């Protein structure tokens, strides 16, 4: 039994909603869309808990930090997807 179309549509819709929520808080909608594709409702909880971003520019983290965050999210996604596959 695989993922249903409803599951994929719901997950994508949540990612779009999170992107809009992030933009409303002064954060990057595109980045949060990608994070939401990987983490789903966990990203929603993080967005709700975060305060609005300051208007002053903040230095960006080094590329290595961003790569580590993305890799961690992909590993978490792989674990979640594997757990769905092991329920047969």
Describe this structure in words.
There is one protein chain. It contains 4 helices and no strands. It is flat, with a radius of gyration of 15 Å. The model has no long low-confidence stretch (mean pLDDT 79). Helices cover 72% and strands 0% of the residues. The chain has helices at 5-24, 29-39, 41-49, 63-85. Helix 1 packs antiparallel against helix 2. It is mainly alpha-helical.
Can you write the helix and strand succession as a string?
Answer: HHHH
Structural class: mainly alpha
Shape: flat
Instruction: Please give the number of β-strands.
Output: 0
End-to-end C-alpha gap: 7 Å
**Strand portion:** under 5%
Rg over C-alpha atoms, rounded to the nearest angstrom: 15 Å
Assign a percent range to the helix content: over 70%
The largest sheet is: none
- The number of distinct helices, counting runs of at least 4 residues, comes to 4
């Amino acid at each position: 039994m695989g993922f249903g179309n409803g599951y994929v549509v719901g997950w994508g819709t949540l990612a779009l909603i999170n992107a809009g929520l992030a933009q409303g808080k002064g954060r990057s909608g595109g980045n949060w869309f990608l994070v939401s594709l990987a983490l789903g409702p966990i990203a929603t909880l993080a967005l709700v808990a975060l305060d609005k971003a300051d208007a002053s520019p903040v230095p960006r983290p080094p590329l290595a930090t961003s790569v580590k965050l993305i890799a961690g999210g992909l590993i978490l996604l792989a674990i979640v997807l594997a757990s769905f596959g092991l329920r047969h």
